[in-house]
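Allow me, if you will, to draw on your knowledge of protein folds for a short while. Thank you for your consideration; the sequence and its tokens are set out here:
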Amino acid sequence: LAAHSNYDIGSHEYLIPDFYDTLAVQGSGSDTAGIGTDQKPFQTVYTAVAVSNPKKASFVEKLVDQEDIITTINIKAGIYTEPRIRIISERMTMKGEGIQNTIIKNDITSDEKTSCLISIEPDNTECKLHVNDIAFEQQNYGQLDDDALIMIQYGEFGIHSCSFRQTDLSTQHNTPYIRIKVKQVHLSGITFMNGNFNHDTAAIEIVPGGGASFNGCNFTSISGAAVVSAILSEKQADLIMKDCQFLNCQSYSGSIPSGSTISVSSSFTADFSSQRVQSTINSPIFTLSYCQFTGNTGQMNSEVYFLGQQIVVGFVQCNINSDNITYGGQWTSTYWSQITSYSFGGCSGSSPSETIYVNIRGIDVGPGTPTNPFRSIKNAINQRSQGGDSLLTLSIGSGTWEDDGLIIGARSISMEGAGVNDTLLMNQIANKVWLACIIGGKLYIKNIGLRQASASESYGGMLTLRGEGLIELTNVVIKQRDLQLNQTSSTIYAAAGDIIITDCMFEKSSYVNRLDPPSFSGAIYCEDKFVSLSITNSNFTQQYTSLYDPPTVFKSNAINNQQLQESNIVNNQQLQEYSGGGLIIILNAWSLKILECNFTENQGWRTGVINIQKMRNNYLLQEGGSSFVEPYIQFFKCNFINNNALKDLAVQSIPLKHDIGRDIIFDHIYQMDDIIKNISQCSSSSPVPKIGSKNTQFQLGVLDYILFTKRTVETAYVGLNGINQITSTSGTSSHPLRTVEFAIFNTISSLKQASHILLFPGNYTEHSLFVGGHSLVITGTAKSQSEPETNMSITNQPGPTELLNNKSIDQDFIQVYNGILTLQLFVIRMDNSNDMPTPFCGIAIHGTSASASIEYCCFNVTDPRGYLDRDFLSLDKGGNLTMLYTAIENIKERFRPVLCITISEKSNVNLNQINITSCKINESNSGAIHLKYFTGGIAVLNQCQFNYDVAVTFAYTGNKPFGGGLLIELCESTMSESYAYGSGKQIQDANRMLVIRDCIFDTNIGDCSGAVTVIGTRTLLQEERFQFLHCLFENNIAGSEFEHPEDPFGDDVYFYIA
């Protein structure tokens, strides 16, 4: 924010609020005087949501985005009438105090003529919104286009333990309760009561592009076109309903899919007659599990009505059967007759549990008794209808069966063999089809050997699971039919439901993963609406999942093959989006539990074993909005043995492979404790990094130490005569490594136990150096010494050791993300040669858990006449910084300070005996050091010297408020007196303040100030949270007095206070 056209630093930026992670709303609150606390709540949900701004860095005064932090809005008991609430924050939970207490109505008298209460803004496409424990009451506005009480058009949306009703049941409403346009929507524990809609409106409408999962929802006395009307238009646009009840609802024919309680149409083109396999794995899915229908009436005289294109369906233990289903459109009696044989399991009129025998010497006309068994598995399960709580058990004798293309569908079937070497089931190469496909049902396989066939095109998985359901394997050995053929399909593919694996073995297999045309597979591949994977006491050996043809091929006429290779890596968008292989690929899941398993000699691109892309809080197990009890990720007593990530071999540049982890990659959103607490008694003999991530703070093996039974601290030496190669002696003083970057990449540490890198004398040109959520110490060699030492004294000076950034890597040189970094005894030099822009920091410290200590160092540049375009050192809000005995010399900045240090109310910053000499800010936008001080922080500048620093406008023509040495910006925080809005209550410790002690400011020059500028508000100044003690000012000049003598100025200190 600019207070004046001349003062373009944005001196009033402190007025922009930081983001709030918890806000309170109460009917007795105030939208003008409230601040969202329990003591001073807002009055409306609209205001609380409006102040929950996007948490991009530019909006929340951060150097990095904070968009994964959830904002929680606690809505107290009361009745709220709200205008349209537009969600702009990326992560949000709106939580009431129960459907009996917290009631929200849509305001149909507001200026915005709409019936909509909640919608997500179009630019918030990655929004993740939860709504819990609220009663929604719909008021009817009238006929509107594309409107609903809750519009779900973008992101992911979860509604839990809520209710929906209408204010006036005498009026037919023209807008639904919910209209859904996206696929990741989850509703659980919802009550829909007494809705009166017109004949063209349903209570829930799913339009093209949308899909949803319903769990434990009740629909009572709903009248309209349908209770649920859906148009399923694409892959993964599924409608999955479980434990739902429909009571006394009435449906009429209208312009949307209608006429039955649930009316489903599909616009997805499929050909189940000639392309059955591809249609089955790509078509939208509709499943009903454990649902009850009572007293409903409709125009079609059925509970479910299908029209449009054919899709895959499943009904599990519902109180209806095929007699309660009608169909039209492209649905034919032939198709319906075909799918009814497996699409109903445990429903009304189905068979009880039974055991059938299958033997290689049987015949397919017998009843399946021990003395008269079936010959084929396909005939044994034909026309069987067990499902849900009733189970069909196949007792299969010794022999080999090639009965593939089995459709378990919605049924529950258990296959029990005579032993893993005696009973073998396999699919055929020529048929290009799975062994078994489950659609909402359950498949149990026990004491059997499975043999998987490869095919020229993917058939999903040898075992394919869609639309809810379960696959459970016990004592199963899985092998490939032909090891010479690469596998285009996964062994197990699941887009929903659960997988349980116990006492199993997955033996050698090579899977095809390629970018163009796209083909991705692995031993276990889980995506979309998958729920949980549990593996116990199982072995996975030599599973190869790396890229089949990675885009790293050299061209014979390339001038620089390595540069070409790295250019291919950087510029290939498909490769950047590729998850990275692994034998277990979790593109989406609710929970993962792996206990007492061994993973041996597996290879992938970024990881050889486990690849987790996305995990969510478990909606299905939530009650009242609270998370489920068990951890969503758990590893216990697992062994990782010599696994590999081939990206490490294909790519030489370390910055391009920061994201690899040979055993595991965690790419989902998490906090460090989520991982540390839930990986126990595991070990790894794989090379480092063992655990990787695309999240910067968890790269470079930050979490590797979890896989070591001994928590050892590693020390590595680096020298110019070293070799970047890992052997039994590499990294020792006699066999040093060559670069610091390689040493960081190949050493182990944790947040509590630091690794130590010792630098011999020399000039090291390095790529970016990353320190994630771990602890690292880098120590150089002191002047007049020949080798590094860990003991230092005040007489030590840097000199023989120097780190220089490689300018070709266009990013910050030393980066800390929620880690702890100590730098000692070396020169840090930034390359500003060739008059090229230098838009990156020398040291960038990010995150509220970050901490850096810089001791006996020197900051410098290669060309004292050239300029930098970013701060040499930048500290994000919330981090901690200590600098001791460090010199900052001859650095010129175009418009940024040399050091930009943000001191939050929780920060500790200590600068002791720092010399800032001959530094210049060319455009007079700051002093050499810019301190952003938020009330309550602790900061001390002790015995620092500011000499010959310049921040004056060219030819002394400016009158900006800045001095050459130090800019102190006073910023409001939660500890500020003004934060209480007139209460006069000061809540911070009086000792928490900014102190400048025994410092010298000599011969500095700026515009309206010579040495020091203090900016802020009168209120913040009156808090007296900063002090100058025993400081010396001499020979400083405010340059504005030459051209603007009428303006106020201060040769030493200038206060610019609003």
